[in-house]
Amino acid sequence: MTGERGRRVLAWTACAAVAGWLLAAGALLRPAGGLAGTYSFAGADGREVEVLRRVDPAIDFSVPQRLDAAYLFHWDYARYGFPTDKPPCVIRWQGLLRAPVAGTYGFSIDASGETLFTLDGQALETHPDTLATRSLAAGLHPVTLDYRLGSGEARIVLSWQPPGRALEPIGESFLASDADGQEAGHARRFWGLLIGLAGLAVLAALVAAGRRHAEGPAGRLLAAIAEDRARIALAAILMLAALLRFHDYALVPFHHETADEYQHAWEGWHLLHEMTPAAWSTFPDRYPPSQTRDFRWFGDRYVLVRPYFDHPPLFSLPVGLLCSLAGARSFLECTLPVMRIVPILCSLAGLLLLYRLARAHLASERAALLACLVYATVPVVILGHRLVKAENLLALLFMGTVLVLTEEGRRSPRRAAVLAGMLSALALWTKATGVAVPATALLMLASRRRYKDAAVVAAIAGAGVALYLLYVSAYDLGLFLRVLQAQGTTKWVSLDAFQDLLGGKVVVKWFGRGTYLWLLAAAAVAAFGRARTLLLPIAVYAAVLCLNADHRVVYGWYRIPLYPFLCVAAGLYLEAMIEEANLYRVLPFAMSAVAGSLLYALPEAIGQSRSVAWLFAAATLLPFLPGMIREGPATQRVARAGAGLLLVVFVLANVATVGRLLEVYAATRGQP
């Protein structure tokens, strides 16, 4: 046992060292140029009040979210007062521009608002439709850019046209906040390259030594890594999931794309600080005027009510707690950069549960890892996991309940029933649609004729409902019933809800429909395989959701509890696709998931090109045509390579999409 434990520790230490090497080299090699920006606003007396200083890699703000965030997330209420509207912004960027070669450079500024650009101390008049030219010597040139906007959406892009090149935004490798920063950047990239090359050399030498001498230290290390490869691969996928979820996480989805995110933070903050739930409500007319507060905040209207009963409070508590620990002195200081950490952590914990869920449903090690890879990289899933919505906690409780009844139910049925009942009760304290969790548990137990265990689950879940009624009664039971009645008037059961559930959304905007369609198709295929029991939680939750959907729309976040089960089905589908390597498995994946991912990942001119469409169709079909004519080992290898390549393209396209998600999501090319 000691030897096995020692090998495992050695393997994980080596993997941690590799991960640290990759992160260090990547951080050092990343360009760190940019201009120093001072973000201010024009006060009532006309004076400029500074809000934030930061270095912006490029002046490429084609969408307003990055500029707005400087004010939204850094507003000091004690110093600046209460912002009823967006403040008139005043921004100054200054630093150095590096001209790579001597020659004539063209400059252009596309902006809403007023701008003033100076180069080498002289103002340069720029217009969106024409280039302002200036002859520059190779080297560094001081620049400043002033930007003012009284109202409207902020937008500014500073572009240039170096000699012999096309017009493009000035990249961060050509900008520096000062000369010392420019030199430090060069030195840092040098060390990053040196560390990267040294690490590659060490890895190559280690692998070569391990293959030559299997009994030596290197060979034993490689063997230990191979023995624990599943856990190591899962850890790598978890790291990738974290990187993708935290990239620009506070900016996309957009601030106030759904004001529901603030409901949870405000409710949790008030519960912790004032012992009374308070948040903005969809039904303020059901409250006495003395219990409401109507106000505008950064230009948006909210009606704060107390006690707030629109949703159960369980998810709001950790959100409010984290905001309080981050220093929120009032509920309005609960900001998205802090709030969204809670759903992201739920998502990462869910990835670990997802692996166990897949294995519990008879998925192989490879299929379970593929399911986790889909869960980690699909953009529509990532965006849902950033939303401060109770469905992110509900997904954890849903997975946990199904997993307990599947795994623990084989060893200790009664203990599994108790745990499932407790998780079901917590689900009811999380969201009204959490009723799907005890409903699924009861159906699972009834299908196995474990009626006593089903009674245990029902009793514990019922106790959870009773406790919730005591909670609302402590504040105002009559008001709670009026809010409940108002919520009932927004429910409109029709077949439209079932149709709406078939489309991929984040909030109300269609996004990632091709991938979401494939996930649904994978679940349908799973109905004919060994993991058909996965369809029960999908079916129950979908039915509960559609029967309780808001009459206006089935919001995108409603789908979040479905994602884990759909991803398990996707992992099984991908494993079968690679193993069988036939066109019938590959074509649905290629035409929906891969094509949809490439549409977002590729620049618009390429993604909409007819020649690229022909190339994609040929790359999809050609590896499988020889096997349709004559089967053999060679054609099978070619087909498997083609299927594997499509999977790699799918993952890389997803990663590329997340890398520039703010601009992609703002445009949502090809989507309504």
Question: Can you describe what's shown?
Answer:
With 672 residues, this protein is an alpha+beta fold. It has five domains: 2-29 and 182-227, no CATH class; 35-176, Toxin - Anthrax Protective Antigen, domain 1 (Alpha-Beta Complex), CATH 3.90.182.10; 260-339, no CATH class; 342-571, no CATH class; 581-667, no CATH class. It is 57% helix and 13% strand. It has 27 helices and 15 strands. The strands form three sheets. Strands 1, 2, 4, 6, 7, 9 and 12 form a seven-stranded antiparallel β-sheet that branches. Strands 3, 5, 8, 10 and 11 form a five-stranded antiparallel β-sheet that branches. A three-stranded antiparallel β-sheet has the order 13-15-14. Helix 10 (341-360) runs parallel beside helix 13 and helix 19 (513-526) runs antiparallel to helix 22 (583-601). The longest helix has 34 residues, at 179-212. The radius of gyration is 28 Å and the shape is globular. The model has no long low-confidence stretch (mean pLDDT 88).
